[in-house]
């Protein structure tokens, strides 16, 4: 058994039901999961299994229907929205399935945005953002806007942005979904470096071979861990 102090994320009987009018979708149906500090976890499952929903819950991006989530000793399910937004900005890096870059901002400004949001902008921010973009192979494009680069390049900007505030936990939703094999390798090498620095990392994918690059893998089936 892991020592309690080794646990970063503790999830107990987590349920999420989406309601649209009279239609209810039980996206998560009772998840129990502990993730240790520094762990590198893969979550696999078919489309609709609840993978994105689970990541959103851990990041506090959506309301929990039932159950508990603690991250680093803080109850995310009990936090108000303002506190959660600040907490998320400081502690969590999130690579969205749909990137969610700001279309009017340069790549450099997109990566600096989380620093600004957390009041961390300083004279080194520019250099740091450029360094992150160099790491993902985009140093020659930093002044372009997202519509001027490819989908795979946008995905790499999203990765750089997620690392902007040195997050305690990095959550990645299909981070290589739009990348060719060679670029996927580059991204996984970056994730390895991030994990080696002690960051806890969770990658979601419907692709088994991708999640196998992690150190532990769980499978979601219809909103439950199988
Ligand atoms: N905002 C929402 N409103 C209503 N239903 C939703 C919403 N988001 C997700 N769902 C439903 O919840 C279930 C789980 O969705 P989720 O996006 O977590 O799946 P996923 O495993 O990430 O799938 P994919 O591999 O296609 O990304 C699905 O049935 C989906 O239709
Ligand atoms: Mg998804």
Task: Describe what you observe in this structure.
This protein has 226 residues and is of the alpha/beta class. It has a single domain, classed as Rossmann fold (3-Layer(aba) Sandwich). The protein is built from seven helices and ten strands. It has helices at residues 51-58, 81-91, 107-117, 125-135, 151-162, 181-196, 208-211, and strands spanning 7-20, 23-36, 40-44, 66-71, 74-75, 92-95, 169-173, 200-205, 216-221, 224-225. Strand 7, helix 6 (181-196) and strand 8 form a beta-alpha-beta unit. Helix 3 (107-117) packs across helix 4 (125-135), helix 3 runs parallel beside helix 5 (151-162) and helix 4 (125-135) packs across helix 5 (151-162). It is globular and about 45 Å long. It starts with 6 loop residues before the first strand and ends with a strand. Magnesium ion binds next to helix 1.
């Amino acid at each position: 058994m892991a020592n309690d102090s080794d646990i970063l994320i503790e999830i107990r009987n987590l349920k999420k039901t989406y309601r649209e009018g009279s239609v209810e979708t039980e996206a998560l149906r009772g998840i129990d999961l502990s993730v240790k500090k520094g762990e590198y976890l893969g979550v696999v499952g078919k489309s609709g299994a609840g993978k994105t929903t689970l990541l959103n819950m851990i990041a506090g991006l959506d309301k929990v229907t039932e159950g508990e989530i603690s991250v680093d000793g803080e109850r995310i399910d009990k936090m108000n929205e303002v506190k959660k937004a600040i907490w998320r900005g400081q502690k969590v890096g999130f690579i969205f399935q749909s990137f969610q870059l700001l279309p009017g901002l340069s790549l450099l400004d997109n990566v600096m945005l989380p620093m600004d949001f957390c009041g961390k902008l300083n004279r080194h921010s520019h250099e740091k953002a450029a360094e992150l973009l160099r790491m993902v192979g985009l140093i020659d494009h930093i002044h372009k806007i997202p519509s001027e680069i490819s989908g795979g390049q946008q995905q790499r900007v999203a990765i750089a942005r997620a690392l902007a505030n040195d997050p305690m936990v990095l959550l990645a939703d299909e981070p290589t979904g739009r990348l060719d094999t060679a670029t996927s390798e580059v991204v996984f090498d970056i994730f390895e470096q991030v994990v080696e620095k002690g960051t806890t990392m969770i990658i979601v994918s419907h692709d088994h071979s991708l999640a196998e690059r992690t150190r532990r893998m769980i499978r979601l089936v219809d909103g439950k861990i199988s």
